[in-house]
């Protein structure tokens, strides 16, 4: 069995050149827009430019449940968990009172299960992102599904000692989906979490550049699911300023939580179950 250094080394090699860079047409802008005012949390919409940054919680059973209104954003963090960097992100999210979705790589959850459990205990949603961050367009169907299943199992195992369970959320590495894999995931009631706004925080740019790029793209689109990574120092560095600016501009951070009622693995975390926020 390899030590942690060996595991981390192989992970860094795998991610160093292309961690979650977008491959081809990601099919962006898949997020549907609500045609009416979002239900719930009405008071949170009364003070644009101020008030709480935390918006409503959407219970997600299928992709069609993810309908964002104007100035609503979802924060997603891919490729972790990574001790230190993920911890910093958790601290910042807590300080702003918002919940995010972490799409974890199975190999990382295997290596750092305590960090995975910390994410769940803080009430964030956890989905999967394959076992080894493979581009699934390059694999046959059986191999691709094995990557997906193994990743989900690794995350469930990491959370196993706690009462928290991963959500049935999945994101394609590099946003490299295929119609066939999307069909297979739908058959398993796994919800693909697409990304509308790519922060491109994997590029070697400054935290300020990441912040401004993301705010600019968000401003042009008005709302959407934002793709970040909790394995880069620049992401944690830009996050406090980014969230402060979101608040100043009147945005709300929406929490995607697993839909209930179906039994099975659709319970995200103790925080959700107990109603704590
Ligand atoms: Zn990724």
Describe the structure.
With 277 residues, this protein is α/β, with parallel strands linked by helices. It has a single domain (59-272), classed as Glycoside hydrolase/deacetylase (TIM Barrel, Alpha-Beta Barrel). It has nine helices and eleven strands. It has helices at residues 4-16, 85-96, 106-111, 113-121, 141-159, 179-187, 207-221, 233-248, 270-274; strands at residues 32-33, 54-60, 67-68, 72-78, 101-104, 125-128, 169-170, 191-192, 197-198, 224-229, 252-258. The strands form three sheets. Strands 2, 4, 5, 6, 9, 10 and 11 form a seven-stranded parallel β-sheet that branches. A two-stranded parallel sheet has the order 1-3. Helix 2 (85-96) links the parallel strand 4 (72-78) and strand 5 (101-104). Helix 2 packs parallel to helix 8 (233-248) and helix 7 packs across helix 8 (233-248). The longest helix has 19 residues, at 141-159. The protein starts with a helix and ends with a helix. Mean pLDDT is 83; it is low at 1-5, 12-18, 22-49 and 261-277. Zinc ion is lined by residues 19-20, 78-79, 129, 133, 173. Zinc ion binds at residues 19-20, 78-79, 129, 133, 173.
Topology record:
Blueprint: H1 4-16, E1 32-33, E2 54-60, E3 67-68, E4 72-78, H2 85-96, E5 101-104, H3 106-111, H4 113-121, E6 125-128, H5 141-159, E7 169-170, H6 179-187, E8 191-192, E9 197-198, H7 207-221, E10 224-229, H8 233-248, E11 252-258, H9 270-274
Parallel strand pairs: 1-3, 2-11, 4-5, 4-10, 4-11, 5-6, 7-8, 9-10
The structure holds zinc ion.
């Amino acid at each position: 069995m390899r030590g942690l250094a060996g595991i981390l080394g192989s992970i860094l090699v795998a991610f160093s050149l292309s961690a979650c860079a977008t491959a081809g047409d990601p099919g962006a802008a898949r997020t549907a827009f609500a045609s009416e005012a979002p239900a719930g949390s009405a008071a949170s919409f009364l003070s644009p430019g101020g008030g709480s940054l935390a918006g409503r919680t959407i219970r997600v059973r299928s992709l069609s449940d993810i309908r964002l209104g104007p100035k609503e954003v979802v924060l997603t963090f891919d490729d972790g968990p990574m001790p230190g960097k993920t911890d910093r992100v958790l601290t910042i999210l807590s300080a702003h009172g918002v919940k995010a979705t972490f799409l974890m790589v199975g190999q990382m959850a295997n290596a750092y299960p305590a960090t995975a459990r910390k994410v769940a205990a803080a009430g964030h949603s956890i989905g999967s992102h394959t076992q080894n961050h493979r581009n699934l367009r390059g694999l046959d169907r059986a191999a691709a599904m094995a990557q997906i299943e193994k990743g989900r199992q690794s995350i469930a195992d990491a959370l196993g000692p706690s009462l928290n369970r991963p959500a049935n959320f999945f994101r394609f590495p590099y946003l490299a989906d295929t119609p066939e894999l999307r069909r297979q995931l739908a058959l398993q009631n796994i919800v693909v979490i697409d990304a509308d706004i790519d922060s491109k925080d994997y590029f070697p740019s400054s935290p300020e550049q990441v912040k401004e790029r993301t705010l600019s793209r968000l401003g042009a689109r008005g709302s959407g699911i934002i793709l970040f990574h909790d394995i880069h120092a620049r992401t944690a560095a830009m996050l406090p300023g980014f969230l402060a600016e979101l608040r100043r501009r009147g945005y709300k951070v929406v929490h995607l939580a697993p839909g209930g009622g179906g039994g099975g693995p659709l319970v995200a975390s103790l925080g959700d179950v107990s109603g704590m926020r």
